[in-house]
Amino acid sequence: MAAPSLSQEGRENQREEWSLEDFEIGKLIGAGKFGKVYLAREKESGFIVALKIIFKEKLDKYQYHNHLRREIEIQGSLEHPNVLRLYAWFHDETRICLVLEYAAGRELYKLLQDLKCFSEKRASTYIASLTKALAYLHEKQVIHRDIKPENLLLDSEGRLKIADFGWAVQSSAKRHTMCGTIDYLAPEMVEKKAHDYAVDNWTLGVLCYEFLYGVPPFEEEDQGNTFRRIMKVDLKFPATPYISTEAKDLISKLLVKDSSQRLSLQKILEHPWILKHADPSGSCNAMV
Ligand code: AMP
After folding, report:
1. Residues at CB less than 6 angstroms from ligand 1
2. Domains and CATH numbers, the chain
3. 134 CA to middle of ligand 1, Å?
4. Which residues contact 194 (CB under 8 A, 6 or more apart)?
5. Fewer C-beta within 10 Å: the chain N or C terminus?
């Protein structure tokens, strides 16, 4: 069992072994395909966490062991303000428990559903946070490959946290696996070609569009049509809502078929739209 530290401001709590006995389990905060997520408090320190309890039976059923192993290895090694921390994990006969940072805010996709689309200030703040997180991941040779609103959580300050590393991979070599969600797939993945870090830059373009217009840019009822539109980079900007030329410029520079020509993460952070609108604190709670 790996046992990283469960840390609190000014306090490091190193443990060799964790068990469910170490936590007071609170309310159910979510349920996924493999198990349930509870609010919990570590008894000794009072530190609040989210405890994800995964049933081994479900892992067997969906043959998800390798995914979960990769997710734990990668997420457990990361420490960034916009990446959800995985503090520790442990298991018993029937369950695997992940001790996660608690994201007290809303799920980003639900917020987007409610607001229909985001203001340029909110959208640019999320894009800047995501870009910083991806720059950190890429530096550690991690390609996320599945950035989408469903994998993004918000903390109590409204700061964005990348929460799911099920499709992430740690490698500097080009990859071939087709993965991720259709709407967010880069052309090289749709065409099952080798792909690298630049797939995440493409996805930032898709997300930026979706944040501002409320729908991803190549969305179609039929999956085949979505694939075709992605491959052609059939990008259209509707007349409403009104979106600034700078925002459209950033999207157009990310949704570029040739992956080597996509705007770099550093250039995204220096783009006029980001500089003009994004809140440097990354917090969106006070925004409309
Ligand atoms: P998952 O099994 O990862 O899909 O999680 C199911 C649901 O639990 C998510 O959609 C979130 O609403 C919630 N959730 C998961 N992890 C956390 C967390 N660390 N903090 C707060 N809510 C979470």
Report:
1. 29-32, 37, 50, 52, 84, 100-103, 107, 153, 163
2. 8-101 (3.30.200.20), 108-277 (1.10.510.10)
3. 20
4. 174, 175, 176, 188
5. C
Task: Tell which residue, 270, 248, 252, 272, has the closest CA to residue 261.
Answer: 252
Report the pLDDT value the prediction gives residue 2, as an integer from 0 to 100.
37
Give 55-88 pLDDT, tens digit per residue: 999 888 888 888 888 889 999 999 999 999 999 9
Q: What is the pLDDT of residue 167?
A: 65
257 alpha carbon – ligand 1 mean position (Å): 33
Please name the residue whose Cα sits nearest to atom 10 of ligand 1.
30
Contact between residue 99 and residue 86 where contact means Cβ atoms under 8 Å apart: yes
Torsion sign, CA atoms 222, 109, 65, 63: negative
- The answer to whether 206 touches 224, Cβ cutoff 8 Å, is no
Cα gap 68→87, rounded to integer Å: 15
Report residue 182 as tokens: 């259709």
CA of 164 to the centre of ligand 1 (A): 9
Residue 279 catalytic?
no
Higher pLDDT, 33 or 153: 153
The catalytic position among 22, 60, 92, 146 is 146
Task: Take atom 14 of ligand 1 and give the residue whose Cα is closest.
Answer: 30
Q: What is the rounded average pLDDT of the residues 131-146?
A: 90
The residue contributing the CA closest to ligand 1 atom 12 is 30
Share of the chain above pLDDT 70, in %: 89
